[in-house]
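Support request, please re-run this one:
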Amino acid sequence: MKSPFRELLEAGWTVELIGFSALDRYLSIHPGHVTFIQTNADLPELSKLFDDLQFPGVTVADAAIYREEGRFYFYCTDERSSSVFCHPLLKLRFHVNRKVYIDETSCYPVYAEMARKVRRTETAIARILPWVNLVEVYETVQLILETAVILARYIPEETIYHQNDPVQELLKVITQPTEPIDVPAELQRTYLELLLTSHRPDLGFILLLQSGIVSQLWPELAMMNTVDHSKEFHPEGNVWNHTMETFRHRKKPDLLLSLGLLLHDSGKSLASSSGNRRFDKHAELGSEVTRHFMQRLGFSSEMISKVQYLVRNHMMPAALPRLPLQRTQETLESPLFPILLELYRCDEASSFKGLDNYYESAAAYQNYLRNVKNPYRSADGKKLDKKRR
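Re-run finished. Output below.
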């Protein structure tokens, strides 16, 4: 299947990457799951080109197509500027036809400085704040959401973690919404995906939490900030802080893994103590929280099922070396198990437990895979007699 860019270009229409998509390209960042396209093709012409064209609503985009590789949002205009985004940094456009960046603001020096620091992984957050702090007062929900994504997506990955906190600096110029927030579910999902596929989602999420937006849009996540953790293994504090910490241990900002990390402990706010289990059945409860949360935001049933698998089973790798195969085989056979094991690694790395248990579990999984391929042994490693071979 041709890319949407190619189909538009071959039909003679202009194609411009705008907003986050243009900035991603400028900074050589993987575009993630959402692409924003401005074109002079109108809706009837787009309908002729794309049989699967959808109309998500005027507050989201003029039109959209939903592909396995992600969503493409179209904005139909002949104008030289776009009002799709609020933040000045998101005025950059990339004209695909002519392969040229179009900067309609006075921000070009800022873009160049961003590129230099991102590519050199500049470590001083305080010197990066001017990128996002280009607005005197942040007083609209859209502007705050965009700023959270900018903070998460474009601050260099290896910034000093607890120094020169950019969130606190931004909160000084943010006006917290006093009225109920009304953001369409698809737009919420878009911002969530942009955050999760960023290098530093923790910064964006913390900004949204402390500005009051998380509690209104995503109360399931805000509840995690009310649940304390054992300080012995989680000195970072509560469930929310632990969850934010897990993102720092990802090897890449994969959406499925990141959704699993975001929601893996979401059931703890509903769990009760039972014996020596403080959060009894929190994985099962978290699976239900995951389903309701993702359904509300319009995720596909396939994606919901995958994330539920990760949340429901996230405790299993810890016990894998000690459980009998009949208890674990169904989970091990899932093609999602390697992602589950990676979630467990991030979970363990974000606590003070260390990674010894993770390596033991990884070895048990490797041994299982070796036995499955061995025609002379059963899946649990027992020798097969000649009649069973």
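Residues 115 and 251 are 22 Å apart (CA to CA). Strands lie at 16-18, 34-39, 63-67, 70-76, 93-95, 100-102, 272-274, 277-280.
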